[in-house]
Specification:
Number of helices: 0
Radius of gyration: 24 Å
Largest sheet: 8 strands, antiparallel
Helix content: under 10%
Number of strands: 15
Number of domains: 2
Distance between the termini: 66 Å
Order of helices and strands: EEEEEEEEEEEEEEE
Structural class: mainly beta
């Protein structure tokens, strides 16, 4: 059986990007993307995952029209390098994106409005006796929003004409954001997104280094 796949891009989006600007003392790159309604929405697609079928009704795919599993409504990237006073060199990298969609919240309490984050243990929620509501595919957002601010500071010390000693300090995830990793759209055993890691992201880390160049 061959089933045609339909993909619709339905969005009000803006993208702002600044190409690398190079000068004697600095260079930077900035890009940002955000949408005010939606990103890529899929209807007759199972996200190219041949091991799970999450259709509520294979013969009525209207309820499957929703966000892609990998949709991120807002993204921001910033990178810069600069020559600072007193011979210091620095670079800063900042990345951020909003959470991705998910259908079920197995940690929900079963209370609150139907299809809310607290009352979406499954896609189908009992709103009142005899009334079941189909919340639709990917109507929630995971707790996997991401933000990191990384930087490096270094200074060159000349040792004669040939050697240069370069001490440096680097910090990753400066503000110690949680950055939960949740790539799953199906049970871990049958998820083939290519991510083997799930759970809490990397904490704040500091790295000291000393390099000798010649």
């Amino acid at each position: 059986m061959l089933l045609a796949s339909q993909v619709r891009v339905w969005s009000q989006a803006k993208c702002v990007a600044r190409s690398p600007q190079f000068a004697r003392e600095r260079a930077y790159l900035v890009s940002s993307f955000w949408t005010t309604t939606a990103g890529v929405c899929l209807k007759h697609s199972n996200e190219r995952d041949p091991f799970t079928f999450r259709y509520a009704n294979l013969f009525n795919l209207a309820g499957e029209y929703s966000y892609s599993d990998r949709d991120e409504k807002h993204k921001f990237n910033f990178y810069t390098v600069a020559n600072l006073p007193y011979g210091f060199d620095a670079n800063v990298r900042m990345q951020a994106h909003t959470a991705q969609p998910i259908t079920d919240n197995v940690s929900g309490t079963g209370t609150g409005a139907p299809c809310s984050a607290s009352n979406s243990s499954t896609r189908f929620v009992v709103a009142s006796p005899g009334v079941t509501v189909d919340c639709g595919r990917n109507h929630l957002r995971k707790d996997n929003a991401f933000f990191t601010f990384d930087w490096r500071l270094q200074r060159d010390f000349k040792l004669g004409e040939r050697f240069t000693l370069i001490p440096m300090v680097e910090m990753f995830n400066t503000f110690n954001n949680k950055n939960s990793i949740n790539s799953l759209s199906s049970p871990l055993l049958f998820d083939f997104n290519g991510f083997l890691r799930n759970g809490v992201g990397d904490p704040r880390e500091v790295q000291l280094a000393l390099r000798l160049a010649w």
